[in-house]
Amino acid sequence: MGSQDISPLRETSKDPFSGDCSCRQDGLTVIITACLTFATGVTVALIMQIYFGDPQIFHQGAVVTDAARCTALGIEVLNKQGSSVDAAITSALCSGIINPHTAGIGGGGVMLVHDIRKNESRVIDFRETAPFSIQEESLRKAWETKPGLLVGVPGMIKGLHEAHQSYGRLPWRQLLGLAADVAQDGFNVTHDLATAIKEMKEEQNYSDKFRETFLPDGQPLLPGMFVRRPDLAALLDLLGSAGVSAFYSGNVTQEIISEVLNFGGTLSEEDFSNYTVLVENPVHTVYQGHLVLSPSPPHVGPALITALNILEGFNITSQVARENILHWITETLKVVLALASSLGDPFYDVSISHSVEDMMSKSKANFLRQQIDSQSFPSDHGIPHFSMESGPSASQVLVMGPDDYIVAVVSSLNRPFGSGIMTSSGILLNSQMLDFSWMNETEGHSSSGLRNFIQPGKRPLSFLLPTVVRPSEGMCGTYLCLGANGGDKALSSITQVLVNVLTYNKNLSESLSLGRLHPQLQSNILEVDSEFPEEDIKYFTSRGQPGDRRRRKERGGVVARSRCFLLGAGSGLQYDKTVYQNKVTQLYRQAQVVAVLWKLSRSRSGLNSKASESSSWFIVI
């Protein structure tokens, strides 16, 4: 046998691990302590990141407008890395081309921009102003035969340019070029446009250019007919290359002035050169844990804020009798509509700013709430009000973009087709002077709101209400963006939609499809949508409030429960469910209200996830 190596190991009866092992125990303690400390630090860091850091949001955004073509154009701008404001600008210009009866560069409007990350907001007010040589008496006596008297200084193009200067990414020329392509390439007449043409008053004094455009050969445009607007395309290209100065000085200005003078108006070069866009902070309140933002006067945002403050104190829940809730809402709307009628342009009456602060206070809401008892009181009870005749037509553009901005634009010509005056370059001019309160009885006015009395350079009272809602604290929660048309009905509609979404937690489509109420202050009649049962009408009558059930006008020529709906959704806001529990963004338009809803919430499991591919779509039902 060969030699073998002798092992150094020796058999022993002593346990080698039975001795002092304090060193081994100390080392284990250090390891465990270090691990716990590291884990605690990571956990604290994650918690701080979750609650204080920027959310990891990846999406293409969502756009809703009055027309599918304009919605697609807004999405196209976002896909080109344009900002949310860029998308809103292009979509708003597009809406003025495809639905010219509601808005356009011959009118004005207001934009509300909200930065989600910084929680900062701005209102860009580009409402029309009264000409410097305007006279109330001549306007009151002759506006029906001289529609030029109704035309205010258009602010649309200058307001959009102001927004682009502050928030734009893509070149101004590119944005206007995209809108110009819509006019040049052509589009199909929408049901809304065809209906508006059909309902035009024969006796109204329309310009020749207007009739050539909308009544070719004396026949109205019909739904689906193909139309090109090369005149508007050329104008938009000019404004894109030469800038807004081409609209407020030069040949375009002279063209507008000449056409207005031909129809008895008073616009001048001075009116255009002195026009300014206003950039201001919105008014706001906290309602049901949500920050609600809306435009300041001469817009009626303070009345919306007051309505929410009053209703919040009623502690509305599903356990409260339906009749009581309907009564509270009706009486609250009476109060705030009366308050709205007393607003006006604060640059012409400094007392408006002071009264607005009082109007929006919680203490004022408590006082007003106490005035609402079990019986209906007349619309003039305790609160002076002045008759209003706000233009019913408006266009809405809502955008929630990947840059984490929310943008709401509401623009208008006042009544459908504004003044009915169209320039040779295709500018359809507004009739916003109708939004002032006039002396004596004209257009249903029986009294004058002194604060909204017409004055040179003044902006009229406005029911254009772009509104944004976000969580009052932190980043997670419901984000809502909405606007409405319908004149003073916009205030009633938005109030009730917000109650449905924020108080009852109803989804957006249901909130918008529910019937709504609107009290008419002058007649003391409550307009009730057809969805309300006869029992509700009898209930209102028993409370001293006569009700008038009405069916809303169908939009788009399609009727669904007496309405036409436009519904869209952005699938790009669905994330990994272990990180974000997102309700699919709902874009919904019904009769008077357009809204976008986005719910954002974080789970506690972390922030590492990849967003799915996103897209936005638009459906007409």
From TrEMBL:
Protein's recorded name: Glutathione hydrolase
Organism, as annotated: Podarcis lilfordi
BP terms from Gene Ontology: glutathione biosynthetic process; glutathione catabolic process
A GO-annotated cellular component: plasma membrane
Entry-linked Gene3D superfamilies: 1.10.246.130, 3.60.20.40
Subunit structure: Heterodimer composed of the light and heavy chains. The active site is located in the light chain.
Superkingdom of this protein's organism: Eukaryota
Compartment(s): Membrane
Any matching Pfam family: G_glu_transpept
Signal sequence annotation: none
EC number, UniProt record: 2.3.2.2, 3.4.19.13
